[in-house]
Amino acid sequence: MPSPRRSTLFCGPSAGALRGVAPDANSDPDPLAVRLLAGDQSALGELWHAQKAVVERWLLKHYAGHLRMCESEDLLQEALLRLWSSRSTIDPGRRLLSRLWRILRNLVANCLKSPAQRQWMV
User: Fold this and answer.
1) Exposure string for 37-63, b = 16+ CB within 10 A, e = fewer
2) Please, which of 2, 98, 109, 110 could form a disulfide with 18 given CB 3.0 to 4.6 Å?
3) Pseudo-torsion of CA 35, 39, 40, 45, nearest 10°?
4) What per-residue confidence (pLDDT) applies to 10?
5) d(Cα 76, Cα 103) in Å, to the nearest integer?
């Protein structure tokens, strides 16, 4: 199976609009980020429901033939778990979705490098 073009490896929603650029000083903190910092697990559920379809479309568009679609839920779940475990380092003044998509892109890159990297998906 041919590997995906390198230029598509890091494409996706965060490649443009979701860059990890801090909002201007006058903007309010991200409410989901504030809730995650406070340990509110329901914020993860909201992120799951908001991003599941987007993640599936992104994987289908860029990685069809390289990843199974059933892996999209596993990838999103793992990204959310990693976001949760590092929640103490979240900056509410920065875009939370940027951070989530960066984690997700790194997970996809690791899966594409080697099938052995998929050990975390059981």
Assistant:
1) beeeeebbeebeeebeeebeebbeebb
2) 98
3) 100
4) 39
5) 9
